[in-house]
Amino acid sequence: MSNDTITDMNYFEIQHALDRVLLTVSKPGRYAGGEYNQVVKDWSQIQTRVALAFPDIYDLGMSNLGMMTLYKSVNDQNDLLAERVYSPWIDMEEVMRRENIPLYSLETKHALTDFDLIGISLPYEQLYSNVLNLLSLAHMPLLAKDRDEKFPLVIAGGHACYNPEPMTDFIDAFLIGEGEEAIVDVARCVGEWKAQGKVGGKTELLSRVAQLEGFYVPSFYKVDYNSDGTIQKVTPTHADAPLTVLKRIVPVMPPPVTRFIVPSIDIVHNRAPIEIMRGCTRGCRFCHAGMVTRPVRERSVEEIVQAVGEMIRSTGFEEVSLLSLSSSDYGEISTLVKAIGERYAGKNLSVSLPSLRIESFSVDLMDQLKDTKRNGFTLAPEAATERMRRIINKFVPTEQVLETAREIYSRGWHTIKLYFMIGHPSETLEDVQAIADLCKAVRAEGKKIMGHRAQVNAGVSTFVPKPHTPFQWSPVADVETSKQKQALLKSQLRGLKLNWNNPFETQLEAWFSRGDRRLGKVLLEAHYRGAKFDAWHDHFSYETWREAFAAADLDIAFYNYRQRSETEIFAWDHIDAAVKKKFMLQDWQWSQNEKTRVDCRDQCFACGILPKFSQLRQNTPAEAWECPTVTPKELRGQLLVSNTVSLEAIA
Questions:
Q1: In order of start, what are the domains of the chain with their CATH numbers?
Q2: 249-307 residue pLDDT tens
Q3: What is the pLDDT of residue 351?
Q4: How crowded is residue 399: how many other Cβ atoms within 10 Å of its Cβ?
C-alpha cells in the first residue's frame, strides 16, 4: 500500500487500535508509554511539537543519554513539547502495517505526522536503513524532496552525521555538533514560520534553518564529480547556505538530566548515566569521538555529586555511570570519586567509571568506590605491539599493561576485559599474534594472584577509518584479510572468551562512514529489498546490500578498499568539525613514521579547535590563535569561559 492511499488515525483511534493489538506482540511495554517521569503536555496549549526518534527498539533507545538530554532541553521550554518514538520490533511492525497504525509517540499516541519537527538521533551508521523504515511506518514519503510543508521537518544529528552525505536524500537538515541548545533553536524557528502561516513554503523554512549555527541543509548544495568518481567540488546553491558548516559547540555543559524516564521493561543499560566530561585530549588517531567532541569541558564535582543524589531520588536506580571518553582525565577525578563514595556509602549504590586509562591510578579510583560490585574491569589497549601503539598514537608499554593487570587482580577483580582493534594501517599478522600473546600474559598474571578464578575476556573489533580523523585517508581491511586475522585469534585464544564482529558488517559501517551522497540510491534500493536492523547480527544481510550496490551501479571497492589521495576532496570536507584538515593530514603522515603526539594538556599542536571555539563564543579574532607557540598557560588566561570548564583540557 502506498503512502498516498493511507489515511492516518488520530490519537484516539491509535490508542483504541493499540488496546486491541498490544497483547498480541512480544514486550508490549515497549509501545505503551506511561512510564514514571515521562513528560506529558497539553497539546492545545503548545504551538510547536517535537518528536524525538531513535531508529532502534525501545530497549536500546531508552539507554541513550543523548535522546534524554534533548528531551529535557525541549520540555524545559514552556512553549515547546517533546515526545519519544522508537522503531518497533518485527512483530509489532507487522501488526502496524496490517492495521494501518502509523508510527506514534509514546507520551500521547499522536502520529508522527501530527508533529512539526522530527529529530532523529544517529549515533552510528548501522541505523541508516532503520531511518527509511521509520519514515515508511510514519506514512511519510522517504525522499525529502517529496515532503512539502504539510509534513514535519525531518532533521538528524549525532556522531554518524559528521558525514551526512549518504543520508542527504532523506533528511531535510542535519545538526552538526552538539544539540542541547540547537534543538531548541530549530524548534523555535519552525514555530515562528508556522505562526506566520508557513509563508514561503518549505523552501523558506529551510532557508531559515540554514542560517542557524551548526545546521546543514543538503538540498542547498551541489556536488560535482571527477571522471574517476572522486569529488571535484561541493558548491552552495542558495544565498543562505554557508561554504562550510561549522559544528555547534556548547561552551558550558548544561545541567545534567536527573529525572530519567523509568522504563516499563528491562533495557540494555538500566541505570542512570551522567556525563562528567565532554571531549578528550589524548589524540588517538582512530578515535572519531575524540576528534569531533573537542574541546574538553568538565562539570564541577559539586554538580555531579548533587546530580547523583537527585538521580537516585527521582528514579530509584541503584547504578550510576560516570560517562566520558577518558574518565581518568577528569581534572578532579580523585576528589569526585572520594566524594561520591563518602556521600553515598551504605546506600547500595553501584558506580561504574568506564573509559579508564591503563595505569595503577585507574585501579585506585575504582578501589575508592567501596560499594561498587567487583565485576569485570575493562581496559582498552587497542593494539598489542608497541609499534602499532605508536602508529595509532595510544602508546602504552606492555609492561604497564601487565602491571595494571596485577593491580586489578590483587584488589579482588576476577575478570579483566581487554578491547583491541584489528585492521589498523600497516598491521601485520605478527601484530595480531601479539594480541593473543598479551591476553595470555594478562591471564598468567591473574593466575599467579588468584589461581583459576582469574579470567580474561577479549573483544576484538575491526577498524573503520572514520571521517574527521587522521586515518580518514586509510583504506578499510577487506573481508578475507579480516577473516584471516580473526581465525588466528580464535585458534590462539581457545579457553578464553573472545568476541569479534562480522567483517561484512564492518564493510557497511565503512561505506556510510566514508561515502558520498550517491549512496542514497543504495540505501533506497536496500530498503526496497527489506534492509533494516542492520546492527542486529541475525537481521543483517550482506547479500541485500551487495544487490543494492549493483542496482545503483556503484562499486563497493571504490568506497572501502582504496587509500585516499592526500589531495582528495572528501565528501565531508564542507562539514567543519573544528579540527583542521591540515592538522589531521600531518598526523596521518606522522603515523606512517610511527611518530607520536603527547597529550594536548602538555603541548598544544594547533589542531584548530581553539580559534574556532574562541570565534564562536568569545568574539576573539582568529588571528590571535594561529601562533602554534602559544603555551597552555597563556591560553588558559585568554580563554576563560566558566569555572566549570576544564581550561587545562582545552589547552
A1: 41-246 (3.40.50.280), 374-516 (3.30.750.200), 579-650 (no CATH)
A2: 998 899 999 999 999 999 998 889 999 999 999 999 999 999 999 999 999 999 999 99
A3: 87
A4: 8
**Phi and psi torsions of 84, nearest 5°:** -105, 150
Give strand ranges (E) for 288-435.
297-298, 319-323, 350-352, 377-382, 415-422
Q: Which residue has the cell 555538533?
A: 177
Dihedral (CA of 24, 30, 32, 34) sign: positive
Element (H, E) at 224: strand 221-225
Contact 261, 232 (CB under 8 A): no
Of 132, 246, 321, the closest CA to residue 579 belongs to 246
pLDDT of amino acid 420: 97
Q: State CA 420 to chain mean position distance.
A: 19
Give the span between the Cα atoms of 262 and 258, in whole angstroms. Answer: 11
Residue whose grid cell is 527509511: 132
> In angstroms, rounded to a whole number, what is the distance separating the alpha carbons of residues 163 and 170?
14
Question: Residue 120's beta-bridge partner residues?
Answer: 53, 156
SS percent in the chain: helix, strand, coil, step 5: 45, 15, 45
CA 243 to chain centre: 25
Instruction: Report pTM.
Output: 0.93
- Is it true that the peptide bond before 256 is cis, omega within 30 degrees of 0? no
Residues 403-416, mean pLDDT to the nearest whole number: 94
Sign of the CA dihedral with 356 first, then 413, 384, and 479 last: negative
Distances (CA, A) of 336 to 9, 322, 644: 51, 10, 14
The DSSP secondary-structure symbol of 249 reads -
Q: What is the mean pLDDT of residues 82-87?
A: 98
How would you classify the pairing of strands 497-500 and 455-462?
parallel
pLDDT reported for residue 375: 66
Residue type, 333: I
Question: Taken in order 619, 622, 628, 630, is the CA torsion positive or negative?
Answer: negative
What number of other Cβ atoms are within 10 A of residue 129's Cβ? 28
Angle 206-211-214 from CA coordinates, rounded to 5°: 100
Average pLDDT value for residue range 618-635? 37
Say what the pLDDT of residue 21 is. 97
Give pLDDT, residue 1: 37
Q: At residue 476, does pLDDT exceed 90? A: yes
pLDDT digits (tens, 9 = 90+) for 18-40: 999 999 999 999 999 999 999 99
The strand pair at 153-157 and 117-121 is best described as: parallel
d(CA 343, CA 228): 63
Per-residue pLDDT, 373: 59
